[in-house]
Amino acid sequence: MCASGNSEQQGGQELSTERETGELVDGGFVRSLDEYSFRARHREDTARRLAYALVGILGGSFAFQYVATLALEFAGKSNAVEGLNRVFNAWLPVIASLVGGAVTYYFTREKR
């Protein structure tokens, strides 16, 4: 850093600058917010992937519960089926509410 208020150059990038008011700003150029570009598509991709993943988890939960119940019934373990059903009945409202929120956001977000 320069004590005299001059700018230091390192690798073509300005490290500090002094404004007209005498304020020292470290770390690079200061620009208005309009000059920076943001990738707006990133949020849309994340919402889409999250909605699809949660719907997949919900479907996989149903499939797993169905297959596990059949396997346990054929093995003659009715007590284990009751325990599996209790776990599924606790898990279903949680994952269903997450899926509902994600799908609602996915379909109601602003279209750009």
Question: What features would you describe in this structure?
Answer:
The protein is mostly helical. It folds into 2 domains: 1-34, no CATH class; 41-108. Helix content is 58%, strand content 9%. The strands form 2 sheets. It has a two-stranded antiparallel sheet. Strands 3-4 form a two-stranded antiparallel sheet. Strand 3 (16-18) and strand 4 form a beta hairpin. The chain is elongated, with a radius of gyration of 28 Å.
The H/E string reads: EEEEHH
Oligomer: single chain
User: Strand count, sense and closure of the main sheet?
Assistant: 2 strands, antiparallel
Distance between the termini: 44 Å
* Overall mean confidence score, pLDDT: 76
The level of helicity is 55-70%
**Which regions contain 5 or more consecutive residues with pLDDT less than 50?**
1-19
Whole-angstrom Rg? 28 Å
Shape, per Cα inertia axes = elongated
Biggest sheet: strand arrangement: 1-2
Q: Helix segment count?
A: 2
User: Beta-sheet strand percentage?
Assistant: 5-15%
Kindly give the count of domains: 2
The total count of strands amounts to 4
The chain-level structural class is mainly alpha
